[in-house]
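Pipeline run #58 for the internal structure catalog. This entry was flagged by the ingest filter as a single-chain record with no existing model, so it goes straight to prediction. Upstream metadata was stripped on purpose; only the residue string is passed forward. Reviewer on rotation: M.T. Logging verbosity set to normal.
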Amino acid sequence: MNVLIVHAHPEPQSFCTAMKDRMVHLFESMGHTVAVSDLYAKSFNPVASASDFSDRSNRDYLVYALEQRHATKTGTLSDDIAAELDLLKQADLLILNFPIYWFSLPAILKGWIDRVFLSGVVYGGRNFYDRGLMRGKRAMLTFTLGGREHMFGPGSVHGPLNDLLKPVLQGSLGYAGFEVLEPFAAYHVPYISDEARQQTMLDLDVCIRGLDHRVSLPMPSLDHFDAQMNPIAGKPTA
């Protein structure tokens, strides 16, 4: 299996970075091939803009998704996007590894999705959810956060963790066609003991070794919607 870990933490000595290193070692020990895209280390540009395209189909008005398609057809993608896209295409499993910032992704990782999830390559037209162009691949989030585990879930102060992360779990990964696995969360990391951190790493080992049995999150199926994306009576919508 080819694994791509997209890592987004600015501190090389962080627990989040240690999680990345641990996953690389474990996957390789299991015989898998691992590529790592360390976004801070490579100073990845997260800003989607007109400068991403050296040859524009419309120089008067920027429609980013259409220019992505044009650049793909003409072979004029910027070098940094092309390199990341090659890694994504080769991957059977995509892991996004990051610290939670404001119930969401760090900007550099959100920008990676904005620029690398190309229209016409990752999604496009009616090619989304179970018809997304990344179908057949799996994806998972692994992340650290400051909150305690009891602060997330039904009736908790923050609500269910997967609800907070729906924009990336469904709106990005699921939309692109990935089979999205249940995330792995490392809770309260800045404040726990060394023993607790060691246990979190052991839990991560169990997660990685058991990926083939990990729960997949439910996503909509276009078979349950008509041509105008209205729900079909009697069909589930998720």
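catalog note: The chain has seven helices and six strands.
catalog note: The helical segments are 15-29, 64-74, 79-90, 107-116, 161-164, 166-174, 194-209.
status: ready for reviewer M.T.
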